[in-house]
Hints:
By secondary structure, the protein is α+β, with helices and mostly antiparallel strands. The chain has a single domain, classed as Alpha-Beta Complex (Outer Surface Protein A, domain 3). It is built from 3 helices and 6 strands. Strands 2, 3, 4 and 5 form a 4-stranded antiparallel β-sheet that branches. Strands 1-6 form a two-stranded antiparallel sheet. A hairpin with a 2-residue loop joins strand 2 and strand 3 (about 25-30). Helix 2 (about 60-70) packs across helix 3. The longest helix is centred in the last third of the chain and has 17 residues, at about 75-90. This is Coenzyme PQQ synthesis protein D (PqqD).
Amino acid sequence: MIDPDEFYQVNSENFVIRRMGNEMVLVPLANSVADMTSVIILNEVGSDILELLEEPANKDILLEKLLEKYDVNREILDSDIQLFLKNAYNKNVIRKVK
């Protein structure tokens, strides 16, 4: 479970990040070399979340911003954001900030 008060931000020093249309491609860096075997591709919503995390944000901030953009059920979006944050944190795509 994600703590709604915890703030996260993109861990950009570990990834090369490029937007391609509605998707975003993340290529992990290992010793400053791209690891092409571990590429991550985000859909439009995942891309929007990651863009919002260029500045520190918590789950509730992300939820409100995405509800402004998407016509979706609040509870479903909340659950999806929690899952995204958990997975992104576990893959070192985002980091906790104070």
